[in-house]
Amino acid sequence: ARTNISLSRTNLQIAIVDNETAPVIVELEKTGYTASESHPLIIICAVITDNSSDCAVEFQFEVMLTVNATTEDFSETQLPLVFAACEAIACAEVEVEDDSIAETDESFSVMLERSDSLDSRIELSASIANLTIEGDDDAMVVGFNSTTYTGTETAGHARVCVEVSNPSSGGAVRPFSITMF
């Protein structure tokens, strides 16, 4: 055996960094959403805005999206937003129902809430947004465009027209029929 070998720097420290202690920050993608009964579908998303690990998120979880509605405007008021592994965004489709009641730009809140499966490392931040239903159920005003029409037996026909006097109400895009007798 050789005796002229000396050992130097014989102590080495190994540090295990626990990257799971850093919280995953989840928040709503936008602070406001707008829907109307003539355009009833809106997409509401939650995003991961802060996470120290290499992958966006290394485990699956879900948060609950709650629409705090006081009327029957929504088909569902609580939906799960499911984050798959390594996915930084999760979305849900919220549908506004046509309840045949004139809206007056009603406002509700949309919020993220903890679900049973939510890991303690996940924090919800900026979790409340405003949801507005635009008033588009104003009654359409429909009437004849003249009070007098004249036809003869020789001419065979007279053009009778009806018109919507407030087509900008939003409800005017809906089909309807009128019976003349």
From TrEMBL:
BP GO terms, sorted: cell communication
One cellular component term from this protein's GO annotations in UniProt: membrane
InterPro entries in the cross-refs: CalX-like_sf, Calx_beta
Protein's UniProt name: Calx-beta domain-containing protein
Alphabetical list of SUPFAM superfamilies matching this protein: CalX-like (SSF141072)
Pfam families attached to this UniProt entry: Calx-beta
Calx-beta domain boundaries: 21-136
Coiled-coil residue spans: none
Gene3D superfamilies: 2.60.40.2030
Entry keyword set: Calcium, Repeat, Signal
Organism: Geodia barretti
